[in-house]
TrEMBL record:
Cofactor(s) this protein cannot do without: Mg(2+)
The species this protein was found in: Chondrus crispus (Carrageen Irish moss)
Catalytic activity line of the entry: a 5'-end triphospho-ribonucleoside in mRNA + H2O = a 5'-end diphospho-ribonucleoside in mRNA + phosphate + H(+)
UniProt record similarity statement: Belongs to the fungal TPase family.
Gene Ontology molecular function, alphabetical: mRNA 5'-triphosphate monophosphatase activity; polynucleotide 5'-phosphatase activity
SUPFAM superfamilies: CYTH-like phosphatases (SSF55154)
Pfam families: mRNA_triPase
UniProt subcellular location: Nucleus
Signal peptide: none
TM annotation in the entry: none
Keywords: Hydrolase, mRNA processing, Nucleus
InterPro entries to which the protein is assigned, alphabetical: Cet1/Ctl1 (IPR040343), CYTH-like_dom_sf (IPR033469), mRNA_triPase_Cet1 (IPR004206), mRNA_triPase_Cet1_sf (IPR037009)
Name of the protein in its database record: mRNA 5'-phosphatase
Enzyme nomenclature, EC number: 3.6.1.74
Amino acid sequence: MQAKLVAVRRPPICSIPLTKLEWGAVDGSHRKRHRNEQHQSTNDARRPQQGGITENQTREVIRIVEKVVVAEPKTVMGVPPLVDDRVRYVVNFILEHVNSANVEIEAKFGTLIEKSSHVRVINCVPVLCETPISYEANKDTYFKSEVGNDIFAMLNSKLNARVEATEQSSSRVQYLHTQEMDVYWPGKVRETKVRRNTADGSEHYETIRIQSKKRLGDLNVLCPNKYADIRYSASREQDCSIPPNSKPQRCRIKDRISYKYEYLSIDITCVEMQGEATADNTNSFEVEVEIDPSANLYEEVLKYRRQDEASKLFDIACSLVNTVRLLLEE
């Protein structure tokens, strides 16, 4: 029996019904690979068999394609097993909060801490693998969105290696180094300035946007045996102006490197706080993975709600979750 590619299956969670879109997120690639397998099988049949291995035996070998087991598993319901409900939670989170084009979805690396004991939540909850926690539990925790200097350096090195490795590839990892300043004003107004070099060699900061940012919701994920936990956040950003007769409250100077690949932007940032009470060390290191505006996330959400098979929502969510997982590997 010839092995077949098993599409990733998603179980229904919460109140959103399972649609046929979710039973074929990789159907397009499946058909392409299946055709390639048929073509390869035809070519293999023309070649002399070696070592006494028959053509049928060769076809029965279980292949691994991009870490997906190429097999035909069985369940009592006659369908392949349902897998990764944790990705499904992220899909639901996006569907719940992305109701306009100006909503940003990002995954922040940090530590989820229990408020009363001030210890990492994974020390209080007996879980062994990546686990989203309920929204109700958020009130008992807080998230410290920073990583250590050693982790920051490790990710910087790992991602730079990917930039070099994909330089000649059609699927390049793009690299951008920026130095910015966020100035915070009353009313949750943030003015972002970028550092510019002038012809005479001097430097100045130029305002590139003024926005207000409203947090819509968080999905906290415990990651035992990893150096960080994850917070998926949804925020709405709107252009605005600086309140009249107001004074800046604080500012953050950001030295950031962004790595863009397909739907995602991975930002690693060294942050210096100014203008407010801080700990002895005013520098911190932040890591976040953001769904890039080029993904047109709101349009993909609308397609998904219409049960349009062209929707890439699940592909985007899979890419986000799996990129986060890979970055959590030391």
